[in-house]
Amino acid sequence: MSMIDGEIAAQPALWRRSAGLAAGLVDTLPAAGEEVAVVGCGTSLYIAQAWAALREAAGHGPTDAFPASEPRAARGYDAVVVISRSGTTTEVLRYLAELEGPRTVAITTDPAGAVAGAVERTVALSFADEESVVQTRFATCALALLRAHLGESLDGAAADAHTALAAALPVEPAAFNHWVFLGHGWTVGLAAEAALKFREAAQAWTESYPALEYRHGPISAATEASVVWSLGPLDDDLRADIEPTGATVVEPALEPMASLVLAQRTAVALARARGLDPDRPRHLARSVILSQGGQR
Q: Residue 232 — left, alpha, or beta (φ > 0 → left; ψ -120 to 50 → alpha)?
């Protein structure tokens, strides 16, 4: 069994643990009404996008999500939240070094890391750290915490995640060579994260889109070798448009975070079918650390 298998399996219990921290972080995480930026790279960026959409939809205030390497023009943010598993990502550190004004908070696994030292407050999810290069549980634990901070219960998501861990995979992964993930609202970020897992772990051809954007060009690539996976209920008209392409539609009856768990398991299975090590993808490291000139 790979390290990532255990890390995926630990998620339901760790989501509950992460959610349980929210009540004690009222003075640390942004309050309702504040204007907030949430920043990350890779997986952390997609989690940032999901939370930004949830926070705005909940009426908690304007929330921008963007890559640390592509910061938005200066705005009057009240707080900036950075998400970094390792706490060493160069782009995040550079962003923080140039930031002036807003209160800063980091969500990371290392309370003594460089990112923690560059912010005013740190939320350390050390129990969610991972040995695998490919992120799974840290990212979803960060999202569980942030959802709980908005007043959401994670009980349903955790219960469905247990189902996702025990369920048969929705397709035989080796039978397909093209994977498309669709989302709506906050699950657009989850769709991007699911696609990234397939890319990283299995070197797969993957795409992700806001669901109704899929008709606007991308559907032309769908064939019998495609899987179109919806991270939430799929629009009936869109499903009707996909079916004639021959693509296999996957629409798990699971809470979206639990559907992501099922996608993680499927990506690992595809990696194994291709003879790859899902813990150590080629060309990747646990953290991206760049030289002063910008090269690793």
A: left
Over its C-alpha atoms, the chain yields an Rg (Å, rounded) of: 19
d(CA 112, CA 292) in angstroms, rounded, equals 22
Q: Compute the distance between CA of residue 21 and CA of residue 291 in angstroms, rounded to an integer.
A: 36
CB 161 within 8 A of CB 11: yes
Which tens digit of pLDDT belongs to each residue from 62-103? 999 999 999 987 678 999 999 999 888 999 999 999 999 899
- What is the tens place of the pLDDT at every residue in 129-187? 999 989 999 999 999 999 999 999 999 999 999 999 999 999 999 999 999 999 999 99
Q: Which residues contact 229 (CB under 8 A, 6 or more apart)?
A: 170, 179, 180, 181, 182, 194, 249, 250, 251, 259, 263
Q: Which residue has the tokens 């090269």?
A: 295
pTM of the model: 0.94
Token readout for 108 is: 């990371």
